[in-house]
Amino acid sequence: MQSLGELERTALEQLWDADEPLTPGALRDRLGTGDDRGLALTTVMTVLSRLEKKGFVARDRSTRPATYAPVHAREEYVAEVMHDALGTAGDRTEALARFVGRASADETAALRRLLGLD
Amino acid sequence: MILAAALLAVLAILLAWPVPLAVARSAWPDRAPGTALLLWQAIALAGVLSLIGSLLAAGLAPYGDHLLAALRAFASESVRGSLPPGTTALSGLALAAALLLGGHLVANLVLTVVRTERQRARHRSLLLMLSAPMPEAPRTRLLDAEAPIAYCLPGTARSLTVLSAGLVDLLSDQEVQGVVEHERAHLRQHHALVLVAFRAWRIALPWFPVASRAQDAVGLLTEMLADDEARTKVPDPVLARAITAVASGGGVLGEPGADQPAADPSSVERRVRRLVHPAPVPGYVRVLVPLAAIALVVVPPVLLAAPAFTG
After folding, report:
1. Per residue in B227-237, pLDDT tens?
2. Which GO terms describe its biological process (chain A) (predicted)?
């Protein structure tokens, strides 16, 4: 059994992969192919409401049963995370501690000389 | 009090310009990053204390001979709504400046902490949706990205270390271990707390060149401290190779562009150089610098309270 957090991640991945909004039942069927065969519908509902609360998915109440779709494409979130991680987000990058910043070609050459690699 | 105010003003000026410049230019901090970090914290704290203390002493001089008596007199006179003899526009101005500066610094620290926490929470929430846990390493996430990236995301309850797939491909197992140990050391030594304080200081005092110089220096020193922790687990050349490989982007990324600030040219080189050519810490640094750091922090309160300077 996966943790709730991991379940949220796999559920969101399924919603990203699907071409159309999914009902909780359809999502359960897509999730039920791995180790989580027989996931309870209430669990799927819990996961969806948590994702909705975090702003990752939106619920369409006009259909019955309601359907769920991702608010943004995966690529948009990836871009935001990479922005922070690569140091292109300006001041926001200071919120995390990067292993090392990016060096220019000249500097890389100097580093390699220092290491005796060239 | 006027003498104390003058002495504190001199100290504030020394700490705002010549002292940080001398520390930033000396060679020993790379060999003793922990001691240097202590000194920078003392410089920042003593600088703020002496600046505010100087203004406070000048502003409260009409009220009494030393700080506590003057503060008591200030409280009672304020309640009565009267001013003591000797109050001038200048002393009033100094008092107002002390209160404004103190309030400004405290407000900025609170705002910066809140903003940093919000940015971390946002990043963490996205990261948990985009990265998979690494089963072999607790609290470590694998991000599916080509660029070699490693960083840690500090958090009060749940801190995370993040590695990209590109990094794991680029580095050997031992080099990856060095990177992970480096990031864990940041989390273990709570570097985020020191960094957020210096970040707040820089944001609060944008017209103060020493604040951004201090932030850069402290950032580099925490990297060296984390490197030193990683060195206890992996050999120096392994760590040096890992730093060089990640800094050069593993050939996946192009040159740092206009939108991507390059690392301070000397900072990566300084980290690698001390791994390749380790040098012993000079004896005077080990003894004198910690003493100087303590003295710096003790002097401003003593100047404000000691009767000898309150004539």
Report:
1. 999 999 999 99
2. negative regulation of DNA-templated transcription
Residue B268 with chain A: CB contacts under 8 Å:
100-101, 103, 107, 111
Name the band, by pLDDT with cuts 50, 70 and 90, for residue B264.
Answer: low
Residue of B nearest to A102 (CA): B247
Q: Can you say whether the dihedral through the CA atoms of B103, B106, B111, B114 is positive or negative?
A: negative
Question: What pLDDT shows up at residue B143?
Answer: 94
pLDDT(A36) > 80: no
B residues 220-279 near A, CB within 8 Å? 222-223, 237, 240-241, 243-244, 246-249, 253, 255-256, 259-265, 267-269, 271-273, 276
Each residue's pLDDT tens digit, B170-205: 999 999 999 999 999 999 999 999 999 999 999 999
What is the per-residue pLDDT for B36?
97
What are chain A's domains?
4-70 (1.10.10.10), 74-114 (no CATH)
